[in-house]
Amino acid sequence: MSKGRTIETRTEEVLAPIAEANGVEIYDVEYVKEGSDWYLRAYIDKPEGVNILDCENVSRALSDKLDEEDFIDDAYILEVSSPGLGRTLKKDKHLEKSLGEEVELRLYKPKDKQKEFAGILKAFDENSVTIETQEEEKVFARSEIALIRLAFDF
């Protein structure tokens, strides 16, 4: 397991009781290096949407608990936020909640001369994702998908 994955997994374990106590769920945790800085990002959500107070309360409690546990060697910046509009659908539970919603999908390599597709998320399993575009139903292997996110219209 990579260093980043290990830190993400440990952080989720530390965050779980804090999220529960604050009435939110963990959407995702990522530990990434951008430029010379490490970022530990926790995305939280709840059905009616999280507000700034939810983020502050969870951030304060998580920060204290991470200081106590002290399992991250690097200096890092902690960010707690909502997954927001256009949220990335990384896990099966994210896809499950988004069935019937409009999604945007980006591939690693072009298929039918394009890399980006949009449509209604119809189905998924461990190997594939099916979307209904305006023309037809399209099935993509999960291994060819770089990114799936909720589409948002303005």
TrEMBL record:
Compartment(s):
Cytoplasm
Q: Where does this protein come from, organism-wise?
A: Eisenbergiella massiliensis
The alphabetized UniProt keywords are: Cytoplasm, Ribosome biogenesis
Write out the similarity annotation: Belongs to the RimP family.
Name all Ribosome maturation factor RimP C-terminal domain ranges. Answer: 89-154
Q: Which domain of life is it from?
A: Bacteria
In this protein, which residues make up the domain named Ribosome maturation factor RimP N-terminal?
15-85
What InterPro entries is this protein classified in? Ribosome_maturation_RimP, RimP_C, RimP_C_sf, RimP_N, RimP_N_sf
Record's GO cellular component terms: cytosol
Q: One GO BP annotation here?
A: ribosomal small subunit assembly
Function according to Swiss-Prot or TrEMBL: Required for maturation of 30S ribosomal subunits.
Output this protein's name: Ribosome maturation factor RimP
Sorted alphabetically, which Gene3D superfamilies does this protein's record hold? Ribosome maturation factor RimP, C-terminal domain (2.30.30.180), RimP-like superfamily, N-terminal (3.30.300.70)
